[in-house]
Design goal:
The structure holds 2 protein chains of 2 kinds. By secondary structure, chain A is of the alpha+beta class. Chain A is built from 3 helices and 6 strands; from the N terminus they run ααββββββα. Chain A is extended, with a radius of gyration of 23 Å. Helix content of chain B is 75%, strand content 0%. Chain B is built from 8 helices and no strands. The chains are: A alpha+beta, B mainly alpha.
């Protein structure tokens, strides 16, 4: 074996060892590297109860309610399996919309509400012109109506 | 016809070749940037949910791609230098580092400018952003380490080990949005499925990415030429070059 082959083996060997070590560390850290908890995790009491954490999911259509003080809002966050009601006093980001993703930071209140002190909008990886978005939305509505049609 | 590629592994022959190629790559970079920016700002449509703010994608995404790709390239050259002891490999690794660091910085800054209007925050410690910040530190660490050691060979070796160890961070950055819940959205363009972008938007982004490639090649070659002259200043070819210049 030439010295440079030996060196190459050394480099490749240490790199793969390092890769395995990193993989093990990341696996061990798995849950802690998540930026937010899903509503199902919160419902299963996997989220911390005594300190602040982040909750992420979709805002349920039609769930956004504004209190009479004009600043406090309530909405429901879902991952389609579980729902968590959220209460937030403050200004919502521009991209906050029903049916879209959101990440809220806060604590679980005694009444089961998640009391948020920060709400961030999480946009998706789809980019399209407004006309295309409108066409998609129209198609969705037509499909929804078609689904309802057979019912009396 | 076969070309003897190993001929160009020697600084004495690579120096003039790089000198001829650099203007070509700069010209390509300039043309592609102009075309890319035109498409990005005048042809590509407004995004339905994000409005005009999404246009930062045309700088942000190419910069982020380059930051990761240049790191892998740098680690590869550094590794080759370590294994083969070739002079040019370590020079290439060092020539790439500042460009990679610059793109990482641009990706982070434009990301912050994008995050404020869309997410509602400049910075959050999610997996994607944190690992990209670590990449910037790796670049800075590599440059500082190689600059801090006076003996060139030892500097190359120490830098190569740092660059290779840091390479594990690149797949972590890339897959972070898949492996964990992050605030950052998933990939719009990947090898495994059709891109989730309107065609003209994608075109603008790809041309900008290509422009970033051309710029990176040109600037890395220029830097490599300087490093070659500096390291080989006592050799006959370098003396000749220096005499012609003065």
């Amino acid at each position: 074996m030439k010295p440079r082959h030996k060196k190459l083996l050394w480099v490749l060997g240490s790199l793969s060892l390092l890769g395995v070590a990193t993989w093990l560390v990341l696996n061990a850290l798995d849950k802690n590297l998540n930026y937010f908890y899903s509503p199902t995790q919160v419902a299963n009491h996997e989220a911390p109860s005594n300190r602040s954490f982040r909750l992420g999911g979709l805002v349920v259509d039609g769930s956004l309610k504004r209190q009479t003080d004009g600043l406090t809002v309530e909405f429901v966050v879902t991952d389609t399996a579980s729902n968590i009601p959220v209460r937030y006093k403050g200004i919502l980001p521009d991209l906050f919309k029903e049916g879209k993703s959101v990440v809220a930071q806060g604590k679980l209140g005694a009444d089961g509400h998640f009391v948020a002190d920060q709400v961030l909008a999480k946009h998706d990886e789809n980019y399209m012109p407004p006309e295309a978005a409108k066409a998609l939305e129209d198609a969705r509505k037509i499909n929804a109506n078609a689904g309802k049609a057979p019912q009396p | 016809m076969s070309i003897n590629w190993f001929k160009y592994a020697s600084p004495a022959t690579f120096y003039p070749l790089a000198g001829k190629l650099i203007p070509l790559f700069y010209a390509l970079a300039a043309i592609l940037t102009v075309v890319g920016l035109y498409i990005s700002f005048f042809v590509a449509p407004t995004d339905a949910t994000q409005g005009e703010a999404y246009r930062i994608i045309f700088i942000h995404v190419p910069a982020a791609w380059m930051s990761m790709f240049i790191y892998l390239l740098m680690a590869m050259w550094a590794g080759l230098g370590l294994v083969l002891n070739t002079r040019l490999s370590s020079i290439m690794a060092q020539a790439l580092a500042p460009t990679g660091a610059m793109f990482t910085f641009v990706a982070l800054i434009t990301g912050a400018f994008w995050g404020k209007p869309t997410w509602g925050t400049w910075w959050e410690w999610d997996a994607r952003m944190t690992s990209e910040l670590i990449l910037l530190f790796l670049y800075i660490g590599y440059m500082s380490l190689t600059a801090a050691i006076d003996d060139v060979r030892r500097a190359d070796k120490a830098g190569a080990i740092l660059a290779l160890v840091g390479a594990v961070n690149v797949p972590i950055i890339y897959f972070s949005v898949k492996w964990w819940n992050t605030l950052h959205q998933g990939a719009s363009v990947s090898l495994t499925r059709a891109p989730s972008m309107a065609k003209t938007m994608l075109l603008g982004m790809l041309i900008m990415a290509l422009a970033a490639w051309m710029y990176s090649i040109a600037v890395a070659l220029s830097r490599a030429r300087l490093l070659m002259l500096e390291r080989e200043k006592s050799t006959a070819w370098a003396q000749e070059v220096l005499e012609q210049k003065s």
